[in-house]
Fold this sequence. Notes:
Elements lengths: L6 E7 L2 H4 L3 H12 L9 E3 L14 E7 L5 H12 L6 E6 L6 H7 L3 E3 L2 E5 L12 E5 L11 H13 L5 E5 L5 H8 L4 E6 L2 H13 L6 E5 L12 E7 L2 H14 E13 L3 H10 L2 E9 L2 E8 L5
Parallel strand pairs: 6-7, 8-9, 8-11, 9-10, 11-12
Antiparallel strand pairs: 1-3, 1-4, 2-3, 5-6, 12-14, 13-14
Helix pairs in contact: 5-6, 8-9
Amino acid sequence: xxxxxxxxxxxxxxxxxxxxxxxxxxxxxxxxxxxxxxxxxxxxxxxxxxxxxxxxxxxxxxxxxxxxxxxxxxxxxxxxxxxxxxxxxxxxxxxxxxxxxxxxxxxxxxxxxxxxxxxxxxxxxxxxxxxxxxxxxxxxxxxxxxxxxxxxxxxxxxxxxxxxxxxxxxxxxxxxxxxxxxxxxxxxxxxxxxxxxxxxxxxxxxxxxxxxxxxxxxxxxxxxxxxxxxxxxxxxxxxxxxxxxxxxxxxxxxxxxxxxxxxxxxxxxxxxxxxxxxxxxxxxxxxxxxxxxxxxxxxxxxxxxxxxx
Length: 309
Ligand SMILES: C[S@@+](CC[C@H](N)C(=O)[O-])C[C@H]1O[C@@H](n2cnc3c(N)ncnc32)[C@H](O)[C@@H]1O
């Protein structure tokens, strides 16, 4: 007989591309299959430490735990079905008898961190280390709603702080948890529009704006970049942390959304494809003046050429 305190660990190895796209999916996975099975109050994303050689980087993995008494064949099938939609060959393993990380390890993995003036503080952290001019963003730890730890999000937060001027109108395309949109509003943007193809992201982003007192300056809509003309355009700045295939396809649309001389920050591009991305952006008049590479991801930032293409 299985002791009552035995846990089953579910572990899904993610490709680097999947790892940047997980926020909304994790929210659904947790709500539909982890919480109802009495599992951990979070889904743990194991990010490999950046290594000196890209070859040494091991894939990130998503893990969660449920009491083994609730680990049924039907539950495993439902988990497998949910993750099958994420990637073509999901590497999903179940191991009986592994306990969740203890609370100290959890706190250590989700301790507050800072990107420039933006301090990312896990919700519930009672001892945030703060500086007087910090902009604190309180995010749900555990990856379920975007923790801000991904290299592309951090790069966008850094670039945003370099580009944003007070009162500007900003578009956050692929807003996910709303972290960039809410950061922009807290940093002084006059109006921010966030759009996302995942409905749950839009809801989470609205909540984030509300809980950070910037709901009056943030609007979130469920729609895909390029699907419709955006009545809020032109924008002074556009953030788009979306996979680079989407960015490349939508480069002319991004350019059309920007006011003359407006700035852009795009991320989600694998480092080895950055030259291709820079060239595609330039063909639409989006001239990158800075490309940062971090943890195999490139982030391009620049301005719309004054005379367009
Ligand atoms: C890597 S996440 C970025 C989330 C957040 N902006 C950040 O920086 O942490 C990419 C987001 O883009 C959304 N997305 C993907 N394709 C999109 C499209 N064509 N139009 C709008 N959103 C899209 C995904 O649903 C996901 O929430």
